[in-house]
Structure formats: structure tokens, C-alpha cells
Amino acid sequence: MSGTTFSVLVFTAAVLSIPAFSQDQPAAQGAPGCGDPNAKFAVSTDAGQHPALPDAGKALVYVIEDDSDFSSFPKPTTRAGLDGKWVGATHGNSYLYFSVDPGVHHLCASWQLAVILGKGRMTAAAHFTAEAGGVYYFKVKNTFFSTERSALTDVTLSPLDSDEGQLLANQYSISTSHQKN
């Protein structure tokens, strides 16, 4: 085995083992909409659930985690925040939903743990104006890719067309989460 091949194998083994050594992720500090950066959630998913309708006088918000471009293991657990408080978390290709009052809201998506070492964003934010009876879909796109020299991460949070949101919610599992003590 040549020295170059051995170096590539050692580097690859090191990069692949990195996700097993998770670190706390303080990046949520200062992001609009996020809650306590030290909060942790336990998450389970269920494929048998279906989307809900908004309560009278309220709007409904879906946060859909898309990990289709996350080429590492484990997948991140992504906390969803609204107006400075966490409302739940997702894991893998899954979603959660919650009711909001009409008005302007600040939404946040943030990994609760850094699942890899590398450069990039692990928190994203957006704002929206909810109307009573409205249904709003947001996609959290978690991305991980590595090169021979580095690992890069990215989290984006973007609004979805309602048809695309319904399609993804029907394809993905629903997340149920609770905050750990």
C-alpha cells in the first residue's frame, strides 16, 4: 500500500468516526426565534400520523426536516424555536407542527448537538406573518459534505409552497419530542 493511499484511508476513517464524538452546539445563541442553547430533546418518529388542520382563530406551522443531502451518520436532531422558545424537535426526514396566534413570528432551526466537526452553519432563522386559519410550511434542509481536506455543514430554513409542504408531510414521519431535564 502506497503512503498516499494509507493517508487517504486514515483520513477517511478519521472523518467517518467524527460523528460519534458529538459536542454541544452553542450556535443558537443570538439567533432570532431560538430558545435556550443548552436545551436538549428526546425525539421519536411515527410514520402513521397525518397532518392536522388549524384550530379556530389560530394558524398552523409545519417544520419539515429534510436530511436527503446529509451524507453522514448520525443525522442531526434539529430543534424548532418560535419567538424565543423551543416548541419541539425533529430527527431525520420528519416533521412537527404547532399552532400560533395571528401576527409576526420568528422561527428558528438549530442542531442540538454538533454531529460532525467542520465548518458551517448549524442554526437558521426566518420570520413570517401568520393569519388566522393559515397553514405555513417551512423546510429545514440539513446538509453535510466532506472533501479530502475538510467537512462542511449547512442548515437552511425556508418557506415552502403549501402543495410541496403537504407532499413532504405525507412522505415523512411525524416527530414527537420532549425536553430532557
Topology (SSEs and partners):
Layout: H1 3-17, E1 23-24, E2 41-46, E3 59-70, E4 77-82, E5 85-91, E6 94-100, E7 103-111, E8 113-114, E9 119-120, E10 123-130, E11 135-146, E12 151-160, H2 162-171, E13 173-179
Parallel strand pairs: 3-11, 6-13, 9-12
Antiparallel strand pairs: 1-8, 2-13, 3-6, 4-5, 4-7, 7-10, 11-12
Can you give a write-up of this model?
The chain is mostly beta strands. The chain has one domain (3-179). It has helices spanning 3-17, 162-171, and strands spanning 23-24, 41-46, 59-70, 77-82, 85-91, 94-100, 103-111, 113-114, 119-120, 123-130, 135-146, 151-160, 173-179. The strands form three sheets. It has a seven-stranded mixed sheet, with helices on one face. A four-stranded antiparallel sheet has the order 5-4-7-10, with no helix packed on it. A two-stranded antiparallel ribbon has the order 1-8. Strand 11 (135-146) and strand 12 (151-160) form a beta hairpin. The longest helix has 15 residues, at 3-17. The chain starts with a helix and ends with a strand. 33% of the residues are buried. The model is unreliable at 1-27 (pLDDT under 50).
Segments where pLDDT lies below 50 for 5+ residues? Answer: 1-27
Strand content: over 45%
Mean pLDDT over the full residue set:
81
Count of DSSP strands: 13
Query: How is the main sheet built?
Result: 7 strands, mixed
How many individual helices?
A: 2
Which strand order does the major sheet show? 2-13-6-3-11-12-9
Helix-and-strand structural type: mainly beta
Give the N-to-C terminal Cα separation. 50 Å
Over the alpha carbons, how many angstroms does the gyration radius reach?
18 Å
